Amino acid sequence: MAVQRTLSIIKPDAVAKNVIGDIIRRFEENGLSVIAARMTHLTAEQAGRFYAVHRERPFYRDLCAYMSSGPILALVLEGKNAVALNRQLMGATNPAEAEPGTIRADHADSIEANAVHGSDSEENAATEIAFFFGDLDIHARA
Ligand code: ADP
Ligand code: MG
After folding, report:
1. 107 annotated active-site
2. What is the reported pLDDT for 63?
3. What global pTM score does this model have?
4. The dihedral of CA 130, 135, 136, 137: what is its sign?
5. Which helix (H) or strand (E) holds 56?
6. Distance (Å, rounded) from C-alpha 60 to C-alpha 26?
7. Contact (Cβ atoms closer than 8 angstroms) between residue 78 and residue 35
8. Counting atoms of ligand 1 from 1, which one is nearest the CA of 93?
9. How far, in Å, from the CA of 112 to the mean position of ligand 1?
10. Atom of ligand 1 nearest to the CA of 66
11. Among 38, 35, 51, CA closest to 142
């Protein structure tokens, strides 16, 4: 499997719980490298643009409020099969359905406040990475 890049976000609930280090440790121990990192605090409008694909969903407004409720840490992860590997380490969207030992099983509070975001395809990863980072912010290691 080829080396890929994916966007991870450590969401406001996980930043507030002070588990940034635990989450990054899981990425590194599973062969992913952090090649860009940025802490930011999105406005609701920016969160809405990031999650525009969900704008028709009933939870969209709440999701934008939650994602702009505190600082987040955006990361670019690089490694073999990075998109699927990150999704596997995250666990299911609903923490009640997440495999034991996944980030969401261990740190998510609810289906909304679920600790992390991860791109769901290489194509979406490229778009999402460009939302937060310019070329000069990204430091390839593979
Ligand atoms: P994932 O983050 O696992 O890719 P989705 O792309 O389906 O999940 O949803 C994006 C985010 O929207 C989720 O991570 C979660 O924060 C929120 N969300 C998804 N489904 C619901 C729901 N039924 N109720 C409230 N929030 C939700
Ligand atoms: Mg998604």
Report:
1. no
2. 98
3. 0.98
4. positive
5. none
6. 29
7. yes
8. 3
9. 6
10. 16
11. 35
Which residue in 41, 54, 117, 139 is the catalytic one?
A: 117
Asked if 91 contacts 99 with a C-beta cutoff of 8 angstroms, the reply is yes
Closest residue by CA, ligand 1 atom 18: 112
Single-letter amino acid code for the residue at 56: E
Outline where 1-142 has alpha helix (H).
Answer: 12-16, 20-29, 44-50, 60-67, 82-90, 103-107, 122-132
From the CA of 132, how far away is ligand 2's center (Å)? 16
Q: How many CB atoms lie within 10 A of CB 16?
A: 13
108-125 confidence digits (pLDDT tens): 999 999 999 999 999 999
The radius of gyration of the chain's CA atoms, rounded to the nearest angstrom, is 14
Q: What are the pocket residues of ligand 1 if the criterion is a CB atom closer than 6 Å to any ligand atom? A: 54, 59, 63, 93, 111-112, 114, 117, 120
Neighbours of 62 (CB within 10 A): 11
Which of 46, 23, 38, 127 is closest to 75 using CA atoms?
38
Please report, as a single letter, which amino acid is at residue 16: A
pLDDT(2) > 90: yes
